[in-house]
Design goal:
Blueprint lengths: L1 H28 L2 H7 L19 H7 L3 E10 L13 H6 L7 E11 L5 E4 L1 H4 L4 E5 L5 E3 L1 E6 L4 E5 L10 E2 L10 E6 L7 E12 L9 E4 L11 E3 L4 E9 L10 E5 H14 L5 E2 L2 E4 L3 H6 L8 E6 L4 H5 L6 E5 L2 E2 L5 H7 L6 E8 L2 E8 L1 E2 L20 E5 L2 H7 L7 E6 L4 H5 L6 E5 L2 E2 L3 H10 L5 E8 L2 E8 L1
Parallel strand pairs: 8-13
Antiparallel strand pairs: 1-2, 1-4, 2-3, 3-7, 4-5, 6-7, 9-10, 9-12, 10-11, 11-14, 12-13, 13-14, 15-22, 16-17, 17-18, 18-19, 18-20, 20-21, 23-24, 24-25, 25-26, 25-27, 27-28
Length: 484
């Protein structure tokens, strides 16, 4: 009897494990999505993202490639010498029988795209800059000499033109502001001089600043871009140009999945001016600006780090005429918020010269609204170096009063301030970026007239958590602020 009960128990236990195994197996066979739905944790949506993924780029490539061109340039190399070398290696022979001068030429390749039937082509400035000859090669092999209509080094955009014999395929310009990170894109160009090549990827980021110029606002993509792609179009899935391929970041010189394109919305403004007058006219505010560091924020008691700090107001500029002051923080310009220092140059530059705009600044703990009439830019508005610095006793810094002789050597009109004569490379000043030859003009918005004045300010402000300096470096002023 006992044996039979044990047998039944074994059978029951075995059956239980069998059914438990079936349940576990059935759960394991479910996809994660199904398991999540069954657990009532899954929120169903209406979008099937897989449906947006193109099965092939072939139709787009076939349609768009004919409007993309190869740009070949030739530049004479000055000072080059040619001809066979003397078999004797005798300097006297070279003196009496000099080698014949033969001009040498350097060739390079880039890309471009046709924007209208008249033969206007957009490319990069660095593709055609300094070229003596420019030849445009169409996809089918037709070659045309090209002339430069205009170019702009600050945005790296150029407009060239050919005289077509027949009708030309053209590109459509899109809206780069509508482009989203993650969107599919195509790049068409002439990598390594191989001829028409199509690559695909996504928009990796927007608004990239690379230090290439004052109007950096690049679209970043992982679509393969290599030398020779410069000037070619970056296109969306509707076949519209959203950018001009311009820059790659690479340690090897080839594609590493980090390429950058100039937004087409910026290009539209530049190209229109180049076509009209062959040059770009920009508006000018007349300030030197810098980014607001955490130390500067603390020193100026700002609520946020948004805005552009005015480090210098140029004499006779629209800003000076309107009443802007050094130390103002520009928070709004022409009705738009200024989130960072790098946004302001673009906001200003492409407004009409002569336009009156409203500028809102943060000054002494409150907002102040000023009216500025923009003038034509004669010289690029500079952006100050925002590296921080610290000044305190024992920091490894030597200063001295500015004598008339020193002022004359430095090209200064007066002798106020103190000049940095020595910086210990192991001290905190050097680590912070203070340089020999810097002139310290203010500390915590108090004027420094000489070394004694500086010592007095240091003593009176010794309990402050941060220090703000005004430094003259190379004729330009900038704020430097640090925590103690």
């Amino acid at each position: 009897m006992v044996k039979s009960i044990r047998s039944v128990s074994v059978v029951v236990i075995a059956a239980s494990f069998f059914f438990i195994g079936l349940i576990v197996a059935s759960q394991l066979s479910l996809t994660p999505v199904t398991q999540a739905k069954n657990a009532s944790l899954w929120t169903e949506g209406d979008t099937d993202y897989n449906a947006e993924r193109p099965g092939s780029f072939a139709d787009l490539a076939q349609e768009l490639s004919p409007a993309v061109v190869n740009v070949s340039t030739t530049t004479a190399v000055k000072g080059g010498k040619g001809g066979p070398s003397s078999p004797f290696g005798d300097e006297s022979l070279r003196r009496f029988f000099p080698r014949p001068q033969r001009p040498q030429k350097k060739s390079s390749l880039g890309s471009g795209f046709i924007i209208n039937k008249e033969g206007y082509i957009v490319t990069n400035n660095h593709v055609v800059d300094g070229a003596d000859e420019i030849v445009v090669i169409l996809k089918e092999g037709d070659e045309y000499p090209a002339t430069v209509i205009g170019k702009d080094a600050k945005t790296d955009i150029a407009l060239i033109k050919i005289e077509p014999k027949n009708g030309l395929p053209i590109t459509r310009l899109g809206n780069s502001d509508d482009t989203r990170v993650g969107d599919w894109v195509l790049a068409i160009g002439n990598p390594f001089g191989l001829g028409h090549t199509v690559t695909a990827g996504i928009v990796s980021a927007k608004g990239r600043e690379l230090g290439a110029g004052p109007y950096d606002d690049f679209i970043q993509t992982d679509a393969a871009i290599n030398p020779g792609n410069s000037g070619g179009p970056l296109l969306d899935m509707g076949g519209n140009v959203i950018g001009i391929n311009s820059v790659i970041l690479s340690r090897s010189g080839g594609n590493q999945g980090v390429g950058f394109a100039i937004p087409v919305n910026l290009a539209k403004i530049i190209v229109a001016q180049l076509k009209e007058s062959g040059k770009v006219t920009r508006a000018w505010l007349g300030v030197m600006i810098q980014q607001i560091s955490p130390e500067i924020q603390d020193s100026l008691e700002l609520k946020t780090r948004k805005g552009a700090l005015v480090a210098e107001v140029f004499k006779g500029s629209p800003a000076e005429k309107a009443g802007l002051l050094r130390g103002d923080v520009i928070v709004r310009f022409h009705g738009e918020e200024v989130s960072s220092q790098r946004e302001l140059p673009t906001m200003v530059a492409f407004l009409p010269v002569g336009q009156k705009v409203e500028v809102v600044v943060w000054r002494d703990g409150m907002e102040k609204t000023l009216q500025v009439t923009l003038e034509e830019m004669k010289e690029e508005t500079a952006v100050a170096d925002s590296s921080g610095g610290e000044l305190q006793e024992g920091m490894g810094l030597t200063v001295r009063n500015i004598t008339p002789e020193i002022a004359d050597q430095l090209g200064m009109n007066g002798t106020e301030g103190v000049v940095v004569t020595e910086v210990d490379q192991n001290g905190t000043a050097a680590q912070a970026g203070i340089r020999r030859g810097d002139i310290l003009l203010e500390m915590n918005r108090k004027k420094i007239t000489d070394v004694e004045t500086l010592r007095g300010i240091l003593e009176s402000d010794k309990n402050r958590s941060s220090i703000l300096f005004l430094v003259n470096r190379g004729g330009r002023t900038l704020f430097i602020a640090v925590s103690k």
